[in-house]
């Protein structure tokens, strides 16, 4: 019997040991020559086609490679697409579900906790004007009243209520942001219609509607998934509700924010600043006007997690390896994001071992 073909179309460095274990168990693992970071920097989009014998594919959520109905149809016996990342928005999940193909992601802590830390760093950089102060001193100047920052933590005894932080999406990352804010004693408003009521109390956040969060937040950070419901969630009307002194942070997915509306709000002084780790098109067009707003916008190339040295590669690689072993054995892997595909998947593949 031929060895089952596993195609790793984009892989983190260090997956070689995972590959060796899979091959020792009887799989044939194909690895790309192109480094994943180089793939992430590609501006052209590629609709991935697989070798017809591929039974499992795995990769990263870079938008440079799109996993579509055409991808699934190119490999009739494809069982699963596994992601090294939490995100999977380059995968047509509906098309996979229709065909009984599982989509699995890797919500390992190293994949998401660093995002929360990055959000804290971005918010402090904007609130404390760290970039501006650094530039001022390096240019040979000293103190400038315009560079006074904003105090974050609550000091009730001094009559200062503290800044209000708003969180849209109280999942893993949003909840970690709330936990990191807790020692500062700041008021936290959270909007998540899908979160259990107890979750708000657990993370010391006050449940609120999206309108309340928009109106009352001094710092608003987005942590919702990209869905038809959240695409364009923050547009002209929503930005108009925010305080002109407020800061918006988006480390979720670019299309959640109307980037043109955000540009107008920032350039017209209707919003103080924004920090964006994600943009609607990645890599961003170097001529996009959002890049011309100077210190009003802090940008990051969708790598805010930055947890390479704290185990991101090894943890994500282990997660994908476990999922591949399960799929090749005809078992349901963990972290399936399209459970509606399971009835058809079980009918096609349950108990059909390939290794």
Report on this model:
- This protein is α/β, with parallel strands linked by helices and 355 residues long.
- 33% of the residues lie in helices and 14% in strands.
- The chain contains 13 helices and 14 strands.
- It has helices spanning 16-24, 36-40, 69-74, 93-98, 109-127, 130-138, 172-181, 197-202, 210-216, 236-241, 259-267, 312-328, 342-349; strands spanning 5-8, 28-30, 46-47, 54-59, 65-66, 80-83, 102-104, 165-168, 188-191, 206-207, 219-222, 247-250, 273-276, 297-299.
- The protein has a seven-stranded parallel beta sheet, sandwiched between helices.
- The longest helix has 19 residues, at 109-127.
- The mean pLDDT is 92.
Task: Please describe the topology of this protein.
Elements: E1 5-8, H1 16-24, E2 28-30, H2 36-40, E3 46-47, E4 54-59, E5 65-66, H3 69-74, E6 80-83, H4 93-98, E7 102-104, H5 109-127, H6 130-138, E8 165-168, H7 172-181, E9 188-191, H8 197-202, E10 206-207, H9 210-216, E11 219-222, H10 236-241, E12 247-250, H11 259-267, E13 273-276, E14 297-299, H12 312-328, H13 342-349
Parallel strand pairs: 1-2, 1-4, 3-5, 4-6, 6-7, 8-9, 8-11, 9-10, 11-12, 12-13, 13-14
Helix pairs in contact: 5-7
